[in-house]
């Protein structure tokens, strides 16, 4: 089908500017005074770490394009240079908003509960100063490495993302002029890294009034910096921080061994081009000039910070003991009702497919699935894809044990999982040592699918058990990310699962697939077909409806297909957490489309797709977003939800998310997001609803909130 009429640049929003809007939505949670104070600290910290990653990857990639004079416009008609200019303006405003939130809202609110962050070491009382100086001598001084720059010593290499203190120093024994005045100061540059191995902040002894104070490590170092340069006077000292290009560029055709090549590239990540410089806003101009020159920084990549650099320390502050009253009560994932019996996991799966909804339901069944398979004498083989796993992964341990128990264990470890490459290399080597067959990703493709296959010998013959999910096999993030999965022994899905692993290990693609929708083979075409079918039904005057819950929407062909379907009368509701390049409210084109983003205590991560299909409702879940990389450059799996009860459950997840009017932000035609108008409406927070529902079901109660009818949500009118 020709969608060219729907591919005009004015119908699309730039993906980078859309991402910045997402970070603004996270920031709006930090500014919301209805949210407990320490949760607001956490959200502000998240905006800072998000922005770091955005610069290291997305901005770095655009800068690479500019350097190579790549001028092709994106789907919104913006060249890389246009995008960098717009990004600079938007991120400077975002940072200004971050620090307005920190200085004007959070710091006063912390003071109100008797918790003080000492913003400058000059503010310390005599007792506090003595404590800080002793702490410096005992804990900090031995760890520091001061470095100076002069004619014999070049400018030192400053590592990516590290916090540093730059100083101008002058020799104490400079000869005085005859009139007794000093001659012109001969200033030298010096720098010291704030050590990441030490806590970023130090708690000071409690005051007599019961108040508590914290001071940041850089302030302690700055106060004592003269002790690092004893033969010099310190003229000024100010913190600074750089961000480097961390986008791994691997020529896979030239890389004889992907493992070695990635290890080599990881080292380069520390020394890539400097793409952002953050400095204290009152930095001495002479010191700033040196930094700008040495790092080759232009004004658009320079950020003057009116407060502490690198707000990610607020996440550590969130962990402070004694402030539970200012946090959301910790939620404990509920047991899965279908597994609350004495039967083993395989017997339970044979009874019926099992839906897992994390973190509302426990992730333990996924770990137990692998653990029991590792010990079960009837299990012959375990095959699994690993994209991101936790630091001390029980799944890795179970796979290693299975291999030691003599089972066939095949694991695809994706070495190109961004920022987890190093971790994954360590796991891959460990699994190999245990006797697992390890596949190191695929040439030119990332393996992002979430699938585990257990092959078991039973009385009736060989049976295959499969876990399919929307999220990683990471027991740690499973407590923070919302994801869905199923455990099944459906024979057709088992056949497809075998085909997936044969494809990954031996490149043998099957001639046909039963049920699994696999990228990059045929997923794009399958989604386009399902969207077209809804459009056809609408054109025939039949009811037509699409609901999709995804993390990102930036694929032009998919968006154009949605526009075409909307123009034909298909009602489309999208729940898109992050990037959304689709524009709502375009007359005659996207008036039937709503987009909402939910930003809550958990990170929305599940991908769910619903098509009305002329009354034969189709529901799918999987690992893929509607992005070119997911559809064309990754191995992804989307699977049908066919069990009638589970299908109702999943449709209900979509329904409640569309009803959310507390954590949802609704996309407006001008690209802004607003919270829904709650006047006269019952407050609905989807995440709280699912927590309560899972807890009640696990306790055997009929969920009080249980509503099973899938009613199309009315468009939000703000």
From TrEMBL:
<keyword id="KW-0597">Phosphoprotein</keyword>
<feature type="active site" description="Phosphohistidine intermediate">
    <location>
        <position position="448"/>
    </location>
</feature>
<feature type="domain" description="Polyphosphate kinase middle">
    <location>
        <begin position="127"/>
        <end position="317"/>
    </location>
</feature>
<keyword id="KW-0547">Nucleotide-binding</keyword>
<dbReference type="Pfam" id="PF13089">
    <property type="entry name" value="PP_kinase_N"/>
</dbReference>
<feature type="binding site">
    <location>
        <position position="418"/>
    </location>
    <ligand>
        <name>Mg(2+)</name>
    </ligand>
</feature>
<comment type="function">
    <text>Catalyzes the reversible transfer of the terminal phosphate of ATP to form a long-chain polyphosphate (polyP).</text>
</comment>
<feature type="domain" description="Polyphosphate kinase N-terminal">
    <location>
        <begin position="12"/>
        <end position="118"/>
    </location>
</feature>
<dbReference type="InterPro" id="IPR036832">
    <property type="entry name" value="PPK_N_dom_sf"/>
</dbReference>
<feature type="binding site">
    <location>
        <position position="50"/>
    </location>
    <ligand>
        <name>ATP</name>
    </ligand>
</feature>
<keyword id="KW-0067">ATP-binding</keyword>
<dbReference type="GO" id="GO:0006799">
    <property type="term" value="P:polyphosphate biosynthetic process"/>
</dbReference>
<dbReference type="InterPro" id="IPR025200">
    <property type="entry name" value="PPK_C_dom2"/>
</dbReference>
<feature type="domain" description="Polyphosphate kinase C-terminal">
    <location>
        <begin position="344"/>
        <end position="509"/>
    </location>
</feature>
<dbReference type="InterPro" id="IPR041108">
    <property type="entry name" value="PP_kinase_C_1"/>
</dbReference>
<dbReference type="GO" id="GO:0009358">
    <property type="term" value="C:polyphosphate kinase complex"/>
</dbReference>
<keyword id="KW-0418">Kinase</keyword>
<keyword id="KW-0479">Metal-binding</keyword>
<dbReference type="GO" id="GO:0046872">
    <property type="term" value="F:metal ion binding"/>
</dbReference>
<comment type="similarity">
    <text>Belongs to the polyphosphate kinase 1 (PPK1) family.</text>
</comment>
<dbReference type="InterPro" id="IPR003414">
    <property type="entry name" value="PP_kinase"/>
</dbReference>
<dbReference type="GO" id="GO:0005524">
    <property type="term" value="F:ATP binding"/>
</dbReference>
<dbReference type="Pfam" id="PF17941">
    <property type="entry name" value="PP_kinase_C_1"/>
</dbReference>
<feature type="binding site">
    <location>
        <position position="388"/>
    </location>
    <ligand>
        <name>Mg(2+)</name>
    </ligand>
</feature>
<feature type="domain" description="Polyphosphate kinase C-terminal">
    <location>
        <begin position="516"/>
        <end position="687"/>
    </location>
</feature>
<feature type="binding site">
    <location>
        <position position="577"/>
    </location>
    <ligand>
        <name>ATP</name>
    </ligand>
</feature>
<feature type="binding site">
    <location>
        <position position="481"/>
    </location>
    <ligand>
        <name>ATP</name>
    </ligand>
</feature>
<dbReference type="InterPro" id="IPR025198">
    <property type="entry name" value="PPK_N_dom"/>
</dbReference>
<dbReference type="Pfam" id="PF02503">
    <property type="entry name" value="PP_kinase"/>
</dbReference>
<feature type="binding site">
    <location>
        <position position="605"/>
    </location>
    <ligand>
        <name>ATP</name>
    </ligand>
</feature>
<dbReference type="InterPro" id="IPR024953">
    <property type="entry name" value="PP_kinase_middle"/>
</dbReference>
<dbReference type="GO" id="GO:0008976">
    <property type="term" value="F:polyphosphate kinase activity"/>
</dbReference>
<keyword id="KW-0808">Transferase</keyword>
<protein>
    <recommendedName>
        <fullName>Polyphosphate kinase</fullName>
        <ecNumber>2.7.4.1</ecNumber>
    </recommendedName>
</protein>
<keyword id="KW-0460">Magnesium</keyword>
<dbReference type="Pfam" id="PF13090">
    <property type="entry name" value="PP_kinase_C"/>
</dbReference>
<dbReference type="InterPro" id="IPR036830">
    <property type="entry name" value="PP_kinase_middle_dom_sf"/>
</dbReference>
